[in-house]
Amino acid sequence: TTGASSNSDSFTTVKSMEDNPDGGCHIYRNGYYRTGISVVEGILEVNIIQMTSIQMTESQAENSLVDFVVTCQGSLPTDVCTVVSDPTCQVSKSVVCDPIIVTDECLLTIRRAFEEPGTYCINITLGDETSQALASALISVNGGEPT
């Protein structure tokens, strides 16, 4: 583009120049284009407000289940991803993504299974078509209450 100017009708004049490799001459094009910009709020903030271990019978004790209660602000999410990593948050152990339907208020409970006791880094990402927001926490799973 060799030049651009704007007028009050939100049209933009564009001049472009292309080289013609065969003859060394230039092709000039002049014209107008119009565009629209949509500003969306997006998901602004995610918070893990509670972590609760689910008590199971001994016959079900293969995995420890933990419920994460999550809130968010901004637009309503359409999907949630949970990344379980080592305590340094560097080595991912599992990733689970699910579509969700949030109709009114951004308050949801996410249940995740942990195969063995230990300390884990949890990243919960809420997303929609235009944005994502993340909350992280360290959790210690002992087969009992998370800490």
UniProtKB/TrEMBL annotation:
<dbReference type="Pfam" id="PF20433">
    <property type="entry name" value="PKAT_KLD"/>
</dbReference>
<dbReference type="InterPro" id="IPR045219">
    <property type="entry name" value="PKAT"/>
</dbReference>
<feature type="domain" description="PKAT KLD">
    <location>
        <begin position="71"/>
        <end position="121"/>
    </location>
</feature>
<protein>
    <submittedName>
        <fullName>QNR71 protein</fullName>
    </submittedName>
</protein>
<dbReference type="GO" id="GO:0007155">
    <property type="term" value="P:cell adhesion"/>
</dbReference>
<dbReference type="GO" id="GO:0005886">
    <property type="term" value="C:plasma membrane"/>
</dbReference>
<dbReference type="InterPro" id="IPR046846">
    <property type="entry name" value="PKAT_KLD"/>
</dbReference>
<dbReference type="GO" id="GO:0005178">
    <property type="term" value="F:integrin binding"/>
</dbReference>
